Amino acid sequence: MSIRELKPQLVWEIFDEITRVPRPSKKEEKIIAYLIDFAQKHNLEYKRDDIGNVVIKKGATVGYEGVPAVVLQSHMDMVCEKNSDTVHNFDVDPIRTMIVDGWVKADGTTLGADCGIGMAAALALLVDPEAEHGPIEALFTVDEETGLTGAFNLGEGMLSGKYLINLDSEDEGELFIGCAGGVDTVAKFDYSVETLPAGYEFYRVGVAGLKGGHSGDDIDKGLGNANKILAAFLYDAERFGIRLGMFDGGNLRNAIPREAYAVVAVPEHTALLFETALATYVSAVKAMYQPTEPNLKITLAQAALQPVVDQDTQHSLLSALVGLPNGVLAMSQTMKGLVETSTNLASVKFVDDKIVVTTSQRSSVERAKRDAMHSVEAVLALAGAEVEHSDGYPGWTPNPKSNILTWSVESYKELFGVEPKIRAIHAGLECGLFLEKYPQLEMVSFGPTLRGVHSPDERLEIDTVDKFWRLLLDVLKRVK
């Protein structure tokens, strides 16, 4: 069965089209062209600003003239993650979708339902002849996943709406009215290389099989961080005289790293002790993560000879990776169950002549975000790294008395017979940045259920898409 046959069919047909358009972050040219072609094909007014954001407009339907405009907002880029054994080029290849036990997922890659399904709903609304609504402004932003670049640089005069519905949420039945702010911290270690004399065995130590996930939504799920797991063993294994040749783990700042590996040289006379210590470590770590990471694997294999990092830098790097805070730092004191502050050790890469460590801090409290940033900076600076921070982005302060929230709650209760949950989210949404440019906006965020976001396990629950669509249609009618 093709996803184009699922209900609501118009939404799924457009989502299927979107999965066929390559759209990595910072490489959105093809999806921008698709959106402009869509607008032209359906005789809809559109704008594109200098950064690449696109707004497509549709006037009010009969009986809704004079109703304030509503912005339907989604982002057009997707996280590009794949399993190590999957052959896929995100720059040119379409996503291969499949239906599995009531979910739509991709074959070995991220699905891109974050935020492709939001895009599909907005586009479907623009062309659905039966939808009733006031003026619509469908805003599609670029580069949400790697820096919120589109929202930061939204062109002047792109929007005129009074209300905004963000379509980038991932839990059906929940209405979001706030989100965390965030900042990235990047450290660079200088190092020199040495060629070892004879008498060393070279090994490749790998961590794999972790679930990964969104570094905001999933940070409290008790998931393993491949970089932390690998670094903890290597730091302890320095007692065997190991020398580090390579450390490579994680990819994206907003994804919990699923895989990491290191190449190490071990003196021949301690090689057996090293192997025994690893076996003991594997047993302990697998037992520790059994409830949340049942597929965790730590592997050991022979590796080719290669130069190694100088010993001082090696020890500084491993010390920093072990010492860096990671995971939930604090829970909210005002909203039960909400993560307030967290940090994610996202990636470790050898880039040119530097070792680059990337981390991401989030908090719904600005002071706590800065404290987390400084904590990470202090560990890395003490290890001798050069540390820089991104500009960061603001959180979205909840407004529990907004009209758009009231209409959304009323609509959900009447459609489905239950109260929706009203929440803030620990992930970053673009809403805080829109408020800086358009302080008059009242905003709410909702969507269908997604799981495994930012990992190849990303999946979209089919039944929740219909509920999402019905809610969107009904809320727009209530704005009248």
Structure description:
By secondary structure, the chain is of the alpha+beta class. The chain has two domains: 262 residues, Aminopeptidase; 207 residues, Alpha-Beta Plaits (2-Layer Sandwich), CATH 3.30.70.360. It contains eleven helices and 25 strands. A six-stranded mixed sheet has the order 1-2-6-3-7-23. A five-stranded antiparallel sheet has the order 18-19-20-9-21, with helices on one face. A four-stranded antiparallel sheet has the order 4-5-25-24. The two termini are 39 Å apart. The mean pLDDT is 96.
Share of residues in helices: 25-40%
How many domains make up the coordinates? Answer: 2
Number of strands: 25
**What is the strand arrangement across the widest sheet?**
1-2-6-3-7-23
Question: Which range does the strand content fall in?
Answer: 25-35%
Oligomerization = single chain
| CATH architecture label name of the largest domain | 3-Layer(aba) Sandwich
The end-to-end span amounts to: 39 Å
Low-confidence region ranges: none
CATH-defined fold name of the largest domain: Aminopeptidase
Number of helices: 11
How many whole angstroms does the radius of gyration measure? 24 Å
Tell me, what is the CATH class of the largest domain?
Alpha Beta
Question: Could you say which structural class the secondary elements and strand pairing correspond to?
Answer: alpha+beta
The main sheet comes to:
6 strands, mixed
